[in-house]
C-alpha cells in the first residue's frame, strides 16, 4: 500500500470515527450500529478482542524492543489511531450541540434519531443470510428485551466516582453493540446530562474514571461479541435487529406528545435521518480496506 492509499485509508476510517462518535452522544442511537453500516464493525470488534496485553511482560523486563514488537502484533494501529481521533473529535465538538437540541427541540431531535434507527435496522436485516425460526425467535427476543428496557424509569444514582466508573463500563458495552445506545444507558443511570457537562467543563478526574471503566468494559465484552459474530452471525444479527426496533419506543414516547403540525415536521425530519443513514451505507460500501 503506497502513501496515497494509506492517506485515503486514514481519512476513510477517520470519517467513520466522526460518525460513530456523533452517534455515541445521541440517546437512542448506537455507535455500534454506525460502525456496522459503514462496514467497519467486525474488524473493530476483532481488533479489540485481539488485545491481550502480552506486551506488558517484556515491558516490565525492560525489553523495549520486544514490547514494541508485541504491541505492533496485537494492536491494529492503522484502525485505532484514525478511528479514535474521529470519535474523540466528534464527542468533544457535538456534546454541546446535542445537549442544546435535546433540551430545546425534544420531539424533532428524537424524530431524527428514529429515522437513523429504522434505517440501521433495515441495513442490518439485509446482512442476514436466509430466514429461519431461530433467527425469528432471536429477533423477537431482542425486540421484547429492548421494549421493556426502554420503558424502565431512570435510576436516581449519584455522581460519585464509583458510579461514574460503572457507568463507563456499562455504556461502552452498549456503544459497541448495535441496537443499544450507550448514551441511553447513561440516561437510565442518571449520568447523561452530567457527563455532557463534565465534557464541556473538561473535568479531568471524572473523564479519566469514566474512560477507565469504558476500557475495562470494552476489553471484556468485545471477546464475547467477537465469538458470537464468528460462530452465530445470523442469530446475533437477528437479535440486534430486534433490539433496534424495540428501542423505537423511546423516540415514539417523545414524539407522540406534540401537536399534529409538529408531528408532520417530525416525520419529515425522521425521513431525513433515514435517508442520511442509507446514503452513508451506500457511500461506505464503495470504500475498501
TrEMBL record:
Keywords (alphabetical) are:
Membrane, Transmembrane, Transmembrane helix
Q: Does the keyword Magnesium apply?
A: no
Superkingdom: Archaea
Bilayer-crossing regions:
79-102, 108-126, 133-152, 164-190, 202-222, 234-252, 261-280
Q: One Pfam family, please name it.
A: VCA0040-like
Q: Which PANTHER family match?
A: INTEGRAL MEMBRANE PROTEIN, POLYPRENYL-PHOSPHATE TRANSPORTER
Q: This chain belongs to which protein, by name?
A: DUF368 domain-containing protein
Amino acid at each position: 500500500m503506497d502513501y496515497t492509499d494509506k492517506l485515503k485509508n486514514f481519512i476513510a476510517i477517520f470519517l467513520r470515527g466522526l460518525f460513530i462518535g456523533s452517534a455515541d452522544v445521541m440517546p437512542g442511537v448506537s455507535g455500534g450500529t454506525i460502525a456496522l453500516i459503514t462496514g467497519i464493525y467486525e474488524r473493530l470488534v476483532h481488533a479489540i478482542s485481539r488485545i491481550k496485553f502480552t506486551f506488558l511482560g517484556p515491558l516490565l523486563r525492560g525489553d523495549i524492543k520486544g514490547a514494541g514488537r508485541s504491541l505492533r502484533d496485537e494492536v491494529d494501529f492503522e484502525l485505532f489511531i484514525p478511528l479514535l481521533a474521529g470519535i474523540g473529535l466528534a464527542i468533544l465538538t457535538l456534546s454541546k450541540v446535542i445537549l442544546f437540541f435535546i433540551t430545546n427541540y425534544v420531539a424533532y431531535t428524537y424524530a431524527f434519531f428514529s429515522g437513523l434507527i429504522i434505517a440501521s435496522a433495515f441495513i442490518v436485516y439485509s446482512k442476514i443470510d436466509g430466514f429461519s425460526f431461530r433467527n425469528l425467535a432471536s429477533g423477537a427476543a431482542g425486540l421484547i428485551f429492548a421494549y421493556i428496557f426502554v420503558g424502565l424509569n431512570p435510576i436516581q444514582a449519584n455522581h460519585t466516582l464509583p458510579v461514574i466508573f460503572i457507568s463507563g463500563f456499562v455504556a461502552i458495552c452498549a456503544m459497541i453493540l448495535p441496537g443499544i445506545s450507550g448514551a441511553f444507558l447513561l440516561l437510565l443511570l442518571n449520568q447523561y446530562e452530567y457527563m455532557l457537562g463534565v465534557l464541556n467543563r473538561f473535568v479531568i478526574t471524572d473523564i479519566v474514571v469514566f474512560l477507565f471503566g469504558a476500557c475495562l468494559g470494552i476489553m471484556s465484552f468485545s471477546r464475547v461479541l467477537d465469538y458470537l459474530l464468528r460462530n452465530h452471525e445470523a442469530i446475533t444479527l437477528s437479535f440486534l435487529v430486534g433490539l433496534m426496533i424495540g428501542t423505537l419506543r423511546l423516540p415514539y414516547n417523545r414524539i407522540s406528545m406534540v401537536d399534529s403540525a409538529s408531528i408532520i415536521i417530525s416525520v419529515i425530519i425522521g425521513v431525513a435521518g433515514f435517508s442520511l443513514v442509507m446514503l452513508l451505507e451506500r457511500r461506505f460500501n464503495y470504500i475498501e480496506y
